[in-house]
Each structure stands twice: as structure tokens, then as C-alpha cells.
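Bumping my old thread because nobody answered last time. Still need a sequence for this structure:
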């Protein structure tokens, strides 16, 4: 093995058989600089890093909580934008009839998953829109989505309607993030069946904790039956760190969910409210704001 001094570039030849540790410290005889050396790992040519990383790890993320107003849509948009800014190719899916995500991204008259099912083709790409932000696409929602529940709820395999279609295109993206309505029915169930990870945004309020428990129970059922690969993680949103009752609830959530809790906490931030008023993701409206930084750190957690 050849070791090159990081400082003066003097090169030393060391016999491989005397190196018995994967990493060790050395001192350069020439300049006295001390530095770490890592023994190169031998890999077969055909063995690439992509083979080691589970291909679907965190690929399809469903944002869900039966409680409204806990920042589901905000998280879908701003996590998606933060991942896209990191160079990840992201598809957002608006699976809520209210179409808040679609509106926040500046779209009004668009197709939706309803039109995918009604059209001749089952191809989601027909209705996917490119947003104003690079690496970020959207399958929008519209009011016609309200008809889907009635039309398909009794159809066989109705809970696979999204998954069957998403599986054909999901490899074109690093992450697909699905926004859902504040209830567990047709849309949320379809989004959960398609997911690798269910993110449960929750505020630190007493009743919000029950929302987490309900999704937790549903994930347990999903794991046993339809979707054994799925996992969930709780995300604390709109947190007020100085509020005593929030501190108590946060401690409870931490002790109950430990490994199923994101390290990143999203704090209550007036800049976020402003960003919604002018329909802009927080990373573009106020890049240095607390919540923009926190969604960036959430994106790093999701991608890591
Ligand atoms: N970090 C935050 N700080 C302050 N307000 C926030 C934050 N995140 C979301 N909000 C506000 O909370 C409200 C609900 O958010 P939304 O994403 O629509 O929730 P949901 O999709 O769960 O119903 C919105 O008015 C939004 O502006
Ligand atoms: Mg919403």
C-alpha cells in the first residue's frame, strides 16, 4: 500500500501484510505531520455501492396524520423542496381533494389521479407537471378527486390503485412524497400501501399524540398484511420550545417513540406562515429562517 503524506506529499511504500487495522495513525518522517490512514477496502468490480444501499430506502414517503393542521402539506412541500435543492429528483403527489399542495405550487387547472384512472392510459406521467423549482415535479390534485372514493371504494384491490401505477415510475425519482387528507380512508390507505416510510407530523399537543397512536396502530396492521416493508417516523412540527406544556408532551413523545422519531424538530416560525401567503417554499422565501434550516436538516436525515 502507498501512503502519501497529506501535508508534504512524501510517499511511503508499506507492505500490506503488516497493516492489520482498517484505520491507523501515522507520522511523516519528512515533516512530522500526523494523520489517519484508511486501508483500502477490496471490492469486486461488479460490486457497486448501489447494490449495498437498499434501492427503495425512503423512496416513497407518505405524510399522514388524521388530525388536520399539523403541517402535513407544509412538510410535503418543504421536505420535497429541500431534497430537490440537495440535487435529489423528487416527485410530490397531492392526494388530498383540498389540493392545498397544488395551490401552494402555483397550479390551478390541472389533471389529477382521478384523470389518470379515467383516461385511456394508466400512466401517471401523463398528468405530472414540472414545477418552477428544479428537480421537483408534481402530480396535482383537483376537485374531481372527490369522485374517486365513491367510484372505486368497492372495486377489487382498491387500495393498490396508486401503488400499481407508481411502481412503474418510482425508480425515475430519488424520492416520491405523498400528501394525504386528515382522515384514514381511500386516499390515505392507497398512499400508505404505496409507501416505504410513513411520516407522521405532529404538534406537541395532547390530542395530537393520539393522532400518532392511531397511525402507529394502522402501520402495525399494514406491516402484518399488505405492506411488510413499511416503517413510520414521527416529526414534531410547529414546536414552541419555551412553552411548558409542549416541553412535557415532547418528553413523552420522545420516550414513547425513541427510534421512530426524527432528530430534527420543526419550530413554530412566522416566516413559514408568510411563505404560504405568497405561495413559496420556505427555502426560497427565507432561506436563513429557522424553519428553512430545519427542513433542510430533515431532508438530510431522510436522505442519509
Ligand atoms: N413551522 C411552522 N410555523 C408556523 N406555522 C406553520 C408551520 N408549519 C405550518 N404552519 C401553518 O399551519 C397551518 C396548517 O398547515 P398545513 O400544512 O396546511 O397542515 P395540514 O396539511 O396538516 O392540514 C398553515 O396555516 C401553515 O401556515
Ligand atoms: Mg393539508
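Sorry it took so long. Here it is:
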Amino acid at each position: 500500500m502507498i501512503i502519501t503524506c497529506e501535508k508534504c506529499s512524501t510517499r511511503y511504500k508499506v507492505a500490506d501484510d503488516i497493516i492489520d487495522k482498517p484505520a491507523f495513525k501515522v507520522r511523516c518522517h519528512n515533516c512530522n505531520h500526523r494523520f489517519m490512514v484508511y486501508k483500502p477496502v477490496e471490492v469486486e468490480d461488479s460490486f457497486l455501492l448501489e447494490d449495498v444501499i437498499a434501492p427503495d430506502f425512503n423512496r416513497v414517503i407518505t405524510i399522514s396524520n388524521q388530525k388536520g393542521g399539523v403541517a402535513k402539506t407544509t412538510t410535503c412541500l418543504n421536505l420535497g423542496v429541500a431534497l430537490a435543492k440537495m440535487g435529489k429528483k423528487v416527485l410530490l403527489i397531492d392526494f388530498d381533494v383540498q389540493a392545498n399542495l397544488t395551490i401552494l405550487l402555483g397550479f390551478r387547472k390541472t389533471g389529477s389521479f382521478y384523470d389518470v384512472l379515467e383516461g385511456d392510459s394508466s400512466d401517471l406521467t401523463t398528468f405530472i407537471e414540472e414545477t418552477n423549482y428544479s428537480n421537483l415535479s408534481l402530480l396535482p390534485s383537483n376537485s374531481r378527486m372527490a369522485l374517486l372514493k365513491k367510484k372505486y371504494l368497492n372495486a377489487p384491490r382498491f387500495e393498490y390503485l396508486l401503488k400499481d401505477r407508481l411502481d412503474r415510475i418510482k425508480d425515475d425519482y430519488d424520492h416520491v412524497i405523498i400528501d394525504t387528507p386528515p382522515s384514514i380512508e381511500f386516499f390515505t390507505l392507497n398512499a400508505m400501501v404505496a409507501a416505504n416510510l410513513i411520516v407522521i407530523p405532529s404538534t406537541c399537543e395532547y390530542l395530537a399524540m393520539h393522532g400518532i397512536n392511531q397511525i402507529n396502530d394502522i402501520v402495525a396492521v399494514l406491516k402484518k398484511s399488505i405492506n411488510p416493508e413499511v416503517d413510520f417516523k414521527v416529526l414534531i412540527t410547529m414546536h414552541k420550545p419555551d412553552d411548558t406544556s409542549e416541553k412535557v408532551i415532547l418528553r413523552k413523545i420522545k420516550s414513547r417513540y425513541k427510534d421512530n422519531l426524527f432528530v430534527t424538530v420543526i419550530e413554530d416560525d412566522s416566516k413559514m406562515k408568510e411563505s404560504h401567503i405568497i405561495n413559496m417554499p420556505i427555502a426560497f422565501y427565507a432561506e436563513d429562517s429557522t424553519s428553512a434550516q430545519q427542513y433542510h436538516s430533515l431532508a438530510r436525515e431522510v436522505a442519509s
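The first helix runs from residue 49 to 52. Let me know if any region looks off to you.
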